[in-house]
């Protein structure tokens, strides 16, 4: 998680750790990993991918949004 995300979402270290624990891939992505995905999509290896939406959320959509899960946890307590 970048410092910018933490600052804009007012997330402290404990909350950031809880947020990352909800993501199946082990945490939020990095700018470098996102750049690798863009480079792949611009490469000949991805020439059969057309007009699709690629979700790069570390698997959150499979288990439910991490923000929702965290909020639900606080409400349930």
TrEMBL record:
SUPFAM superfamilies: NAD(P)-binding Rossmann-fold domains. InterPro entries: NAD(P)-bd_dom_sf, SDR_fam. It holds the Pfam family adh_short_C2. This is Uncharacterized protein. It comes from uncultured marine group II/III euryarchaeote SAT1000_07_H11.
